Amino acid sequence: MSLIALIPLFPLIGFLINGLGYKKIPKAIVAPVGIGAALLSFITTVLVYFQFKADGQTIIQPLFDWITVGGLNISFAFQIDQLSIIMLFIITGVGTLIHLYSKGYMSHDEGYGKFFAYLNLFLFSMLLLVMGANYLIMFIGWEGVGLCSYLLIGFWNKRSDFGDAARKAFIMNRVGDLGFLIGIFLIIRQFGTLEYLSVFEQAQGLEMGNISIMFITFCLFIGAMGKSAQIPLFTWLPDAMAGPTPVSALIHAATMVTSGIYMVVRSNVLYTLSPDTLEFIAWIGTLTALLAASIALFQNDIKKVLAYSTVSQLGYMFIGLGVMAYTSGFFHVITHAFFKALLFLGAGSVIHAMSDEQDISKMGGLWSKIKITAATFLIGTIAISGLPPFAGFFSKDEILAHVFEHNKAMWALAMVGSFMTAFYMFRLFFLTFTGKFRGTKEQEDHLHESPSSMTIPLIVLAGLSIVGGFIGFPEIFHLPHALADFLSPLYDGSRAVNPEFGLVHLSHSTEWMLMGFSVLLAAVALGVAWFIYVKKETQPADPSQLGGIKKVLADKYYLDEAYQIAFVKPVEKASQFFYSTIDKKAIDRVVEGTGDLTSLLNRLSTKLQTGSTGFYILVMSIAVAAILILNMGTEIADQFFSIFNAQTK
Amino acid sequence: MLIHLIILIPLAGALISLLAGKNNQSLSKNIALLGSLISLVVFIYAAIQHQAGNTELLSLNKPWLPEMNLALKFSVDGISLLLIALSQVLIPLIILSTSKIEYHKSHLLYALILVTQSALVGVFSAKDIFLFYFFFEAALVPAYFIALNWGNKESSKASFKMFIYTIFGSLIMLVALVFLYSKGQTADMDALISTAEFMPSGVQRALFWAFLLAFAIKMPLFPMHTWQPDAYTTSPTPATMLLSGLLSKMGVYGLIRIALPLSPWAAEHYSVIVIGMAVIGLIYGSIIAIKQDSIKRLIAYSSFAHMGLMAAGVFSGNIEGLQGAVFQMLAHGVNAVGLFFVAKIIFERTGSRSLSSLGGLNKTAPALSIFFMIILLGSVALPLTNGFVGEFLMLKGLFEKHQLLGIIAGLSIILGAVYMLRLFQKTMFGESNELTESVEDVSGIEKLTLAIISGLVILMGVFPNVLLKVSEPASEALLNLLAKI
How far is CA B56 from CA B59, B60, B89, B118, in A? Predict the structure, then answer.
């Protein structure tokens, strides 16, 4: 067995140990097994990286033939290349930190072993998603992470609304997955295979704007809308905050939700071939970024703010992809993984200190009480706001520069979203850490910094949030863009089908100007937030007190209610109707009716024997006519069927 | 020459259980288990030999009524082999699943289960149309008697409804078979199939609808399904398991073995109509399942929905659809037995099958909830479980046959998640109540049975090729036959 197969194997073994031994294995062993599995996976990733770097060739590691039917063979195989190796680093690296953090965060929970088992299972699924060498292995991971997300959102399932949130996440993801599945069918139809290498090689021979590629990319993107929480399938992600906070950090911020972006970058040849799909993606990204950022402005739940912020940031990533700046979008995946995991874990540390309080209107002045958490949270806030030289600045600026070149209106909207981002993040920071404490006396007495197993991950992630952006300097800095250089071979296909690919026409002065403008905007947002929440000490309003547009925003544009009316209620009504009316009344009545009919016919047929010859002749002629007419009827029906059949071919 | 042994061993077991195990549940159960397991072992040996090329072991050709040109003719191909395997594996599991409840006249119950096993092997290997018909009818009788003997007033009403429904379908099929026999002067399936393509279209039309009706009732397909939810819900669990896990598969098998090859032109001609009906049933059943309160009725509607997809797969007329349907028969058999077993365990411990009165079981019975989750994942077709392989292939096949119907059928993967997760949430999640707070977790035989079923769910999902390869030549052969039309 090669090293590559070990990467997902470790978490699988960890899952089996903690899963099968649930409640039997002592707590002291659970965490080392869980964390150890993630760490071993990370170490193996490092080793595989060096193996890969030695000759830089894509490695395909087949394990066995999974499904073979007719001419279609889907192998269970892994692929190691530039893209999967970076994803592996994020998943196993950030994953290990979050496993470590969970040791402290979940230490009082009765489901300790179960939690680590689920986390390991998640790692396993996520690793399959990014390591698979074909679309169906990706689909295993795609659905697998959905399952783990379901299990972890519903982790504290005694509360029925948490159970509902879990179910909603799974079902919304399934809607996307159906799109993905149809995309897979179309790929098989077009290329006869699902293996990436073969699909992309064949795709290079196609023309730009090929209609079937457009359908393929569109269907796959429906899958991405579900998994990466884009309009209209994003409402599950804020609800997913019902899960324990490490889950929000790992699954609902750093890794799983970025799989949509991974998928598009993986399939970049196909997307480059379909400018229409890309344009669609860019607009969905823009709208999502704006919508989610506007909702975040008036949320008072610390995790909800971060959740909407995640949706919004994912929108930025898709804007990047949509304007064909695949590297920029992916760059933002990396930096976002650092600072969003940091922010969520920081929020967890705050919640931990506040005795499970999540409402920021009851916090305030925590800076002096939990200094490490506060300082690292500030770093995360600066990073996401796009202030230099922290990580978010580089990746977001790169996206915005490409958007400016592509479409000025889209750029303007993205800037508005960017302003809101800096505002709501600093609002969150100021309300939590500055001013006076607004909680209860018991909470105040209980305030404490988290144990080191929680603060160490915070510090490491804060460090990464500071320097993470340096892997991609803008060209105008005259420093290397290490990420772009590393990823470059991935886009050979895109370059082959579109000669324009990767060319930038912006002048350096424009780029400086754009950069200056976005930094200025973030600084102004910071200032406004400071003025409102620090200088004037404005208290966050109770959502029920809000009016007008603020209320609409705080109530999330009533989208959940709209979905209830548009989908849930009609299906429930149909269910009732089908069962009690069609099944129980219509069909059963007919069945029972045949019984009644038999006895009725019996009574009637005795009456028919009248003895009158004339009556018999009449019946005979009617019968003959009926036979002839019926015969014609079947012919007409046949005509109809043949037309119908012909149409389907 | 082992096929008749495989049929006779369970019968012998039934007889011994009747005679020796009277009023002794554990003895009669052990006899039955032993009988079914010996038959399984003999079958495994024969199947391995068969796959190695020694096809003699699983075939038999003896004159039966020579003056009427009827023969005791059995032989198996890959599809038969897999379905016999399914029966041979599920019957011992069904016997094991009866562990906790004390049944009066238990020897009779086990004898009836074993008779079903024999009959199923017969159905899946008979090569004479009347022999097929005989076993096809014989397989249903035990389930009917189980419902009558161990059910309540409701279940005898429901099983009577089922009996009338299926007898109606079977009689029409019998007319069609007699017609074929009188035309061809033979009851040999292979001989009839080889001449089927020369039959005039009008005759094929009539034959096709006759066959379809019989098999559609058995599966069941929309709108011939209303016996099924009542029968599955009210019957005692062993009967429900036999019906959903095994007897429903006779319908799909009949489509593959009889309806398609014996009226090939009509089967192709009407394929879109049948698929349309099947897809309506799939969506219709799934939607009904969403609001059901009774666990058993919910699983019954889910089962009905799945059967629709299998029919659609068979009629998609391509290798993915057909292979997918064959695989799904196996997966669905395992999962249906598993789900009804879980329903039975919950009922035995809480006295309730109503979702609105349950909840919180994952705290008191964590092992049960894990097994339940695994089987449920198979049922909602999560990749790496057995349900995915079949559904993926069937939907792919259907999508190639008729794009729109394929997409509509695809909606079932969303609806399936809706009703199955609701089932899980309402039983396992939430606060426990007076019914569920002192529930004892599964242990012993129950745990073993659930572990075997869960193991099958995952193994079949990870290594589906082991099974797909067995049926591939038979599926190819059928498609080649149809392609000649």
Answer: 5, 8, 23, 20
Average pLDDT of the residues in A170-182: 94
CB contact under 8 A, B324 and A69: yes
Contact check, Cβ <8 Å, A578/B288: yes
Which residue is listed with tokens 């060096």?
A50
Nearest to A139 among B270, B292, B383 (CB): B383
Token pair 């649930």: residue:
A22
Over residues B226-267, the pLDDT tens digits come to 899 998 998 889 999 999 999 999 999 999 999 999 999 999
Contact A181 B270 (CB under 8 A): no
Q: Does A24 reach chain B within 8 Å, measured CB to CB?
A: no
Minimum-distance CB partner of B319 among A23, A69, A136: A69
In DSSP terms, B126 is beta-bridged to: B74
CB B328 within 8 A of CB B380: no
Cβ distance of A163 and B429 shorter than 8 Å: yes
Q: How confident is the model at residue A649, as a pLDDT?
A: 43
Give the residue among B161, B154, B141, B281 at the shortest CA–CA distance from B227. Answer: B161
Residues found in chain A: 649
Confidence of residue A637 (pLDDT cuts 50, 70, 90): low
For residue A244, pLDDT over 60 is answered with yes
Q: Which amino acid is at A501?
A: F
Subunit contact B393:A188, Cβ cutoff 8 A: no
pLDDT tens track for B40-59: 999 999 999 999 988 888 88
Residue A633 predicted with pLDDT over 70: no
Among B320, B377, B425, whose Cβ lies nearest the Cβ of A163? B425
Distance CA A347, CA A352 (A): 8
A368 Cβ contact partners less than 8 Å away, ≥ 6 residues apart = none
Asked if the Cβ–Cβ distance from B413 to A167 is below 8 Å, we say no
Per-residue confidence at B311, pLDDT binned at 50, 70, 90?
Answer: very high
Whether A218 has a pLDDT exceeding 90, the answer reads yes
For residue A54, how many other CB atoms are within 10 A of its CB? 8
* Mean pLDDT, residues B278-290 taken together: 95
Q: Is the pLDDT of residue B148 over 90?
A: no
Task: Please give the pLDDT value at position A644.
Answer: 56
By the CB < 8 Å criterion, does A174 face chain B?
yes
ipTM for the predicted complex comes to: 0.94
* Token couple for A301: 């739940």
Q: Which tokens hold the place of A270?
A: 């196909």
Nearest CA in chain B to A588: B226
Categorize the per-residue pLDDT at B63 as very low, low, confident or very high, splitting at 50, 70 and 90: confident
Q: Where are the domains of chain A?
A: 298-554, 610-649
3-state secondary structure of A299: coil
Please give the full DSSP string across A473-513, using - where no structure is assigned. --GGGTS--HHHHHHGGGGHHHHHH-TTTT-----HHHHHH
| Interface residue A212 vs chain B (CB under 8 A) | no
Query: Which run of H or of E encompasses A265?
Result: helix A259-266
pLDDT digits (tens, 9 = 90+) for A350-406: 998 888 889 888 888 888 889 999 999 999 999 999 988 899 999 999 999 999 999
Residue of B nearest to A174 (CA): B414
Please tell me whether residue B188 adopts helix, strand or coil conformation: strand
Cα-only R_g, chain A: 30
* pTM of the predicted protein model: 0.92
- Which A residues in the span 127-156 are in contact with B, Cβ-Cβ below 8 Å? 136, 139-140, 143-144, 147, 150, 154
If you count residue pairs, one on A and one on B, with CB atoms under 8 Å apart, how many are there? 139
**What are residue A301's phi and psi, to 5 degrees?**
-85, 125
Sequence-distant (6+) residues with CB within 8 A of A86 are A330, A334, A486, A487
Q: What 3-state class would DSSP assign to A205?
A: coil
